[in-house]
Amino acid sequence: MTSSLGPDHPAHRLADSAYLRACRSEPASHVPVWFQRQAGRSLPEYMALRREGSILDTLRLPDVSAQITLQPIRRYGVDAAILYSDIVVPAECIGFGVDVKPGVGPVIEKPFRSKADLQRLRPLEPDVDTAHVLETIRIVVQELEVPLIGFAGAPFTVASYLIEGKPSRDYANTKALMLEDVSLWHELMNRLTDLAIASLRSQVEAGASALQLFDSWAGTLSSADYREYVMPHSSRVLTEVADLGVPRAHFGVGTGELLDQFATAGADVVGVDWRIPLDEARRRTGGAVALQGNLDPAVCLASWDHVAERVRAVLASNHSHPGHVFNLGHGVLPQTDPAILEQVVELVHAEGRTDGG
Ligand code: CP3
Asked: Other C-beta atoms within 10 Å of 120: how many?
C-alpha cells in the first residue's frame, strides 16, 4: 500500500484484516461483513446511551459516540466499524443551520436557494470545526481491533438535503436548480466537494482505515444527468483522497444504471443494492472494483429460514470472487431484531469463501 500515513496508523496494523483485503480484491480467510447503519437505531444498548433530542448533540460527546460506534462490533462481531456520525455534520459544523430530527432525518432552517447562500458554505477547518468527531475517532481506534470506516456524504446527496430542506421523494427543487442555473449548481457542488475532501482526510489522519462516500440518493438521476452534473464532483472527492492509500468505497441506492460510472469514479469498492444480483453488478462494473452488498434489509424482518436462504443466494451470486464485502443493500431497518443480524454474521463467516482463501 502506498500511503502518506505515519507508521503507527491503524491502517498498517490492520492491512491484512479480512475487510481491508477484500476491499483490495485479495483473498481472505473469510468473507468480511458489516452493516450500513449498524451503529444506532436498532440496538437496545444504543437506546440506553442515546439522549433525548438531536443526534447532533450526542455527536458532541466523544466518549458516548465512541461507545456507540463500538456497540455493533461487540454485539455482532462484524469485520469493520463505521463511525457514529452523519453526512450532514460538516455542513452543520460550519454553521449552515442543520438539525437532524428523530424519526425524520436532516432538516435545514434556511434551505439553499440562490448564489447568496454560497457564502454560508465556507471551507471546513476539521481540527476546529469537527474537533469532537476527530476525538471520537481517536478514542475508537484505541479500542478497536478491526478497521474503522470514515465517511462523507457525496456532494449530490448533501446538496439534495441543503436544497430540499428535508428528506424528499422527488428531489424536484434539486433537479430544477441543477437545470436552471448550471453555474450555481457547479459552484455549490464544488463547495460540497471541498467539504467532503477536508472531512474525509481528517478522519483518516485521525485513525480511520477506509472511507465510504455515501451518494445515497444519486439513483434518482438519469445516467446522462449523473454523468454531466454529479460524476465529476464525486470523482474529484475520490481522487483527492487517493494519496492516503486507504480503500475508498462508493455507495448509492437504486444505482443499477449508474454502476458503470460508479466503477470508474475512482473507488476501490462499489456498493450494490438488492435490485440486481452481484454477478450482474460485476458485469456492469467491468470486474475492476470490489463489490459491497447486497442483502435486502427488509429480508431481515422475515424468519431465519428465509434470511439464511437469501444470505446464501448473495454469497452464491458472488461466485467466490475475492472482492466481496458482505453488507445489506442499504441500512439496517430500525425494527430489525439484532439476533437476526448476529446470525447473518455467523453464516457469512461460516460459509463465505473466496478463491485461494
Ligand atoms: O451505522 C451507521 O450508519 C453509523 C452512522 C451514520 C448515521 N448516518 C447515523 C444516524 C451514517 C453512516 C449516516 C449516514 C447518512 N445519514 C446517510 C447515508 C447512508 C444511508 O443510509 O443512505 C444519509 C442519507 C443520512 C441522512 C440521515 N440521517 C437520515 C435520512 C436520517 C433519518 C433516517 C433514520 O433512519 O432515522 C438520519 C438520522 C440518523 N443518522 C440516525 C442515525 C443513527 C437516526 C437518528 C437518531 O438516532 O436520532
From this structure: 15
